[in-house]
Automatic annotation (TrEMBL):
NCBIfam families: glycerate kinase, PRK09932.1. One of its GO terms (molecular function) is glycerate kinase activity. The keyword Cell wall biogenesis/degradation does not apply. GO terms for biological process: organic acid phosphorylation. Coiled coil: none annotated. It comes from the Bacteria. This is Glycerate kinase 1. It comes from Escherichia coli O6:K15:H31 (strain 536 / UPEC). Belongs to the glycerate kinase type-1 family. Keywords: Kinase, Transferase.
Length: 381
């Protein structure tokens, strides 16, 4: 009997890999002879590098890069087991969590470090990059990332500009002649789960600026800067710079990746599941087990468990979802391929206790689910 275990992380409690281990351990007490395939997954955001490295037997590359506020930070990216794909999280180099709350300022923040990670991967011969763009501290339109790869942003006097949100309004021209030529032969996929455009009421400044420390005055300055940036950028591409879905993601990194990297912008879970080849693993399985910290009505919006379920249903394989918490509207997930859902909480407890006991609770729940399946196999209609 083949059982595929493919959970996302339980945020602040268990990594996706540890979730796999706990579920497998619980099931193995009841089905010790089953063939288990563990594929820790992620939706393209935090944890994607760890999940994909674990799922493919890859490794982590560490290096120093320029942080969002110009300081040196220790960053990382992942290499898949075959050594052909780099998995980069923008947050590792340009993330909001790298900046103390009192120092957050998207007018000064730059995505330069993210470009350094991409350049380092190219130096290592990588020609396929998966870039997750969640959790950034920046609203620089991806200027920093592009600058690290050789793109030059000039003001009206032809002077090179520092790449940050405050200089978006000063961009008068963009020179691409020194852009890293290796990008032309590199397939880059951007994991993006928002459809916000670059500018406007749903744009990078208005929606994401306040999350990154922008005051109302900063939001207005950033919006005006992005409007100018868009006008200049439009001269380089046939893409509708202002309206492209996802262009405003990560402070405009979405549009920068599309224009400067010729990247494909896709839902994160789609990229991850293709990369770990979930479809091949699911074929012939008796059961698929997925999960994440919380399963509720929002799970149906494209989160990792629904992505796993959609693949499983292509092969008519039953799916069980396990979560720390089952929230409002959880029943909707049954319409999208998750046949049964379970919470691992044995009782009400303080949050700190719940997070600390996640591994034990997940093991116990997995064992109980397996036991129920075993009992069901012996019950006759």
């Amino acid at each position: 009997m083949k059982i595929v275990i493919a959970p996302d992380s339980f945020k602040e409690s268990l990594s996706a890999e540890k979730c796999c281990q706990a579920i497998k351990a619980g099931f193995s007490t009841i089905f010790p002879d089953a063939h288990y395939i563990c594929l820790p997954i992620a939706d393209g955001g935090e944890g994607t590098v760890d999940a994909m490295v674990a799922a493919t037997g890859g490794n982590i590359v560490t290096l120093e890069v320029c942080g969002p506020m110009g300081e040196t930070v220790n960053a990382f990216y992942g290499l898949t087991g075959d050594g052909k794909t780099a998995v980069i999280e923008m947050a590792a180099a340009s993330g909001l969590m790298l900046v103390a709350p009192e120092k957050r300022n998207p007018l000064l923040a730059s995505s330069f470090g993210t470009g350094e990670l991409i350049r380092h991967a190219l130096d290592n011969g990588i020609r396929h990059i998966i870039l997750g763009i969640g959790g950034s501290a920046t609203v620089d339109g991806g200027m920093g990332m592009a600058q690290a790869l050789g793109v030059r942003f000039l003001d009206a006097d032809g002077q090179v500009l520092a790449a940050n949100g405050g200089n978006l309004a000063r961009v008068a021209s963009i020179e691409m002649d020194e852009c890293d030529p290796r990008l032309a032969n590199c397939h880059i996929e951007v994991a993006c789960d928002v459809d916000n455009p670059l500018v406007g009421a749903r744009g990078a400044a208005a929606v994401f600026g306040p999350q990154k420390g922008a005051t109302p005055e900063m939001v207005e300055e950033l919006e005006q800067g992005l409007q100018n940036y868009a006008r200049v950028l439009q001269q380089l591409t046939e893409i509708n710079v202002c309206q492209m879905a996802g262009g405003g993601a990560a402070g405009g990194m979405g549009i920068a990746a599309a224009v400067f990297l010729n990247a494909d912008i896709k839902p994160g879970i789609e990229i991850v599941l293709n990369a770990v080849n979930l479809a091949q693993a699911v074929q012939g399985a008796a059961l698929v087990i997925t999960g994440e910290g919380r399963i509720d009505s929002q799970t149906a919006g494209g989160k990792a468990p629904l992505g796993v379920a959609s693949v499983a249903k292509q092969f008519n394989v039953p799916v069980i979802g396990i979560a720390g918490v089952l929230g409002d509207g959880v029943e909707v997930v049954h319409q999208y391929g998750i046949d049964a859902v379970f919470s691992i909480l044995p009782r009400l407890a303080p949050l700190a206790e719940v997070l600390a006991s996640g591994e034990t609770n997940l093991f116990n729940s997995a064992r109980n689910i397996a036991c129920a399946i075993k009992i069901g196999q012996g019950i006759k209609n």
